[in-house]
Amino acid sequence: MKLTDISNDINDWFSGSGPLADIVVSSRIRLARNLAGHKFLHSCSIEEKSKILEQLKAVLMSLDLGDEVFYFSVDQAPALSRSFLVERHLISRHHAMAKGPRGVVIARREFFTAMINEEDHLRLQVLMPGCQLSACVEQIDRIDNDVEKHVDYAFNPRFGYLTACPTNLGTGIRVSVMLHMPALKMTGQIEKFLAAAKDMNLAVRGLFGEGSEATSDLYQISNQVTLGVSERSIVSNFESSIIPEMVEYEKIARRQLLAKQVDILDDKIARATALLQNANLISSQEALSLLSHLRLGLNMREHMQASTPAIDRLCALKNQNAGADPDRGLSIRTINRLFMLTLPAHLQLNYGKSLDAAHRDALRAKIIRQALHQPT
Amino acid sequence: MQCQVCNKRTATIHLTEITDGVRHEMHICEQCAAEQGIAAQSQMSINDLLSNLLASQPSDDELLGGGDEVSACPNCGFTLDRLQKEGTLGCPHDYEVFQHSLLPLIQHAHNGSTTHCGKVPSKVPHDTKKLVELSSLRQELERAIREEDYERAAELRDRMKQQE
Ligand SMILES: [Zn+2]
Ligand SMILES: [Zn+2]
C-alpha cells in the first residue's frame, strides 16, 4: 500500500460519526509497552534498536486484526511522508522527528497503529470516531494480549508495566477524547473548561499541535495518572463523569448562543462561509478556524434545529463531494475532509510535489472554494 | 535561540534524542513545527516536573546513605542524574535499582500512588498475578469508598473475599 492510497480521503476516526459526535469528535487509547531483556530505547545501540524493530514488526504483521495491515519504515521515509503520518495521527511528532531504526504498523482503515521504537519499544494505539472508549479499550486489550503471546513484556508486580519515562508507569495507558468546543470560545468561557480539566488531573492539548486548539477549537483531553488506577476505572471515569461534564459545558454555551447571542453566532458563520467561498489565499490556521465555525453551524442545525440566516444558507449548500448523491447537503464529513485534506503534508502529497507556503495557501483556497461553490 | 529550520524566528520547541550515547538536539519555532507537523507536546512539562523533583531530592551522598545502594545500574550503567537530561530511564531494572530515589517522583506524577493497579501479563507466574490482583482490588475498594460509591465498594469487597 502507498500513502497516496489513503491521502485522498479522511480516515474513519475523523469521519464525524459515532455517539455524541457533535462534540466528541474521536476517542483514542494508547498503551506503552517495553520488552524485557532490552534497555529502554534511549540507551539502545543501533543494533539493539534494529533487533527490537525486527522482532516487534514480525509479531505485529502476523496478528489477525480483521483488516489489511501494512508496515511503514519511518526512519527511511522522506520528511513529507512523515509529516503526512503525523497529520493523520498515525505516528506521533516525536516518532517523526526521532533518530534510529523505527517504524509503524498501520491497519488499512486506520483504527489501529503500532509505533515501534518511539519513546518506548512499542506503543499500541486504537482510534475510533465519536465517543467509543469502551470499544477502544476492548479492542486494544485484545491486541495487547495477542502481542504478549509472542514477546515478554517488562513488568514488575509493584510498578506494573515498566516504561521508559516514569510518568507512563503502571498501566501505560493514555485515554484521550477529542472535543469540539467552539461555542465555549465564542462565549468567552473556554477558561472554565480548561480549569475543570486541570482539576480533574487531565492534560489538554490541540488536535494539530500546541496552539492549534485556539484556531480549530479542537481539544484533546487525556489522563495523566497511569499508576494506581486500573484501565477500566480510567475509562469508566471518562465515560461516566469527565465526558458528560465537558459535553455539558459546550452544550450550555451553544444554547446560550442561540438564546442570547444569536447575532454573534450568525455573524461568525456568515463570515466563515463567505471567506471560504471567496478567498484566493488561505493559511492552514485560518482554514482550521473558519471550518470550525461551519462545523458548529451544521451541528447546531442537526442537533438543536438552529436556524439563523447564515445557518440556513449554509445548510442550503449542495455537497460537491457527495459523488453519487449530489443533492445531499453539506455534511460534517465534507467539512472534516476539507479540514484534513488541506493540511500542509496532505496538500503536497496529493498534489504530487512539494509546494512553498504561498502556493499551498492558493491550492488550499481553491479546494475549499470548489467544495463550497454554490452551483447556479 | 534561533529556529534551525527557518533561521529566523525564535525556537520554542526543543527535541532531544540520545543515540549511542550521543545527544542530538533540534530547536525549532512553532510555525515551522506546525508546517512540518512536529509536536509541541507536553514534553516540556514532564521535563520541568523531573527537574523540579530531582532538584528537591537529597544529594548523592544522602541518597547513598539512606536509599539506593548503588549509584549506577549494574545492567545498563544508568545513573540518576541522566533522568533529568534524557527524560527516560536506562533499562527496566532501574526501577528496582533506584526505587528509593524514584518513589517520590513516581508518587508526585501519579497523584500519590506508588503501586500498580490493573492489567497483568498472562505470562506472569500465578502467585504474582494473584498478589497484583488482590492489591488492585484493594486500591479500587479504597477509591470506591473515597468516592462514596458504596454499591461498587460492596461488589469489590465480595470479589476480594473470593480471591483470598
Ligand atoms: Zn522556524
Ligand atoms: Zn539499568
Overview of the structural elements:
The complex is a heterodimer of chains A (376) and B (164). Chain A has an eight-stranded antiparallel beta sheet with strand order 2-3-4-5-1-8-10-9. Chain A has a two-stranded antiparallel sheet with strand order 6-7. In chain A, a hairpin with a 5-residue loop joins strand 4 and strand 5. Chain A is globular, with a radius of gyration of 21 Å. In chain A, 47% of the residues lie in helices and 15% in strands. Chain A is built from 14 helices and ten strands. By secondary structure, chain A is an alpha+beta fold. Helix content of chain B is 51%, strand content 9%. Chain B has a two-stranded antiparallel sheet with strand order 1-2. The termini of chain B are far apart. Chain B has 164 residues and is mostly helical. Chains A and B meet through helix 2, helix 3, helix 4, strand 6 and strand 7 of A and strand 1, helix 1, helix 2, helix 6 and helix 7 of B. The complex binds zinc ion (2 copies).
